[in-house]
Give the backbone structure.
Amino acid sequence: MTVSPTASKPAHVPLERVIDFDLYHPPGIEQGFHDAWLKLHAENIPDLVWTPHNGGHWIATRGTMIAEVFADYERFSCRVMLVPKSVGEQHQMLPVVLAPPAHRPYRLLLNTSLAPRTVNNLEGDIRALAGALIERVRLNGHCDFTRDYAELLPVQIFMRMVNLPQSDVGLIKGWTDHIVHPDGRMTYQKEKQHLYDYLEPHIDARFGGTGEDMLSRIINGKVNERALSKAEMLSLCMQMLLGGLDTVVNFLGFAMLFLAQNPDHRRALIAEPELIPNAVGELLRRFPVVTLAREVRQDMDYAGVQLCRGDMIAIPTPLVGTDERLNPEALQVDFRRSTSQHATFGNGPHICPGAHLARTEIRITIEEWLSRIPDFEIPSDALLRFRGGLVGVVDGLPLVWNVATTRAAS
């Protein structure tokens, strides 16, 4: 299903720049989410192409351009940050749709609760939960990693940070999933309203209080010395939920899929666990999952084509770290790689405020999993399914192992 009807080619788009590529259903996704995107690195594909899908938009295909569009808010506006534009114009979540300097005071409200010092204080809780989740399945000899771990650890940690009931996870995750992976069953506005209706009583209960949870800090924070309006509170809190309940969940699936299929890499981390922090960075470079967009602010010549004010450009992070122009042997995963370039957490003023939390959860997951279940694989009869969208997904990840090779952590 296409999220919105295809568009006719505008006059300013050269015919040779037109490709048939729907980011919600990329051609060849059956063979893998990242493999589908990597087709845009073929020699005959220009650095900037146009697709008629999802209302019609440009796609930057090379890492340098993607990073530049992320960062250059003077030419590429974040006012609309997803396609189709008709849906993106409804998003309007703070602070992602604001350019500097307007976005900075809102961003500070998020940064306070996601700063490295705050996240580091959570490491014990993250490790304890990771260990408990692994122990639930270790003696079974099998699990669905997505359902039994990836959808639980980052989500439960986030729900603790915002002090919302763990019992509400399924409800909230359903709404956020339909926003990030629209399937046409409900409009964006209805899904957004569900989240607003859920958040409003929690906001009302905490407004004016002294709570130290992330939600309380945001709604009782100030922007330019003034209190937030209710609309600003709802917008910031919804964006916080979207960021906290989806991206790490789905990245973990791709990281574990790689480790399951590459025993030599897995054994290297077991032999030298000090490599794990660098391995996290390398996996983030190789397997990003997010595709955002920007709106062209004025008519201009760019990358050999004419861009018109209001044009949309998709900026897929899966095409940055895998670009051979930026990273030698970019498709190879090298846990000893000394330097790399990627935009997995974005680039510029809107770089993801939760990057340190994400890295911490990924690192602890690998450490705790390999210490308990060092040898695992994908069942030979498993049929893996992938989904595109604003965030790529491996839709369920079955893993199997010999229980005799596992051990309970000391």
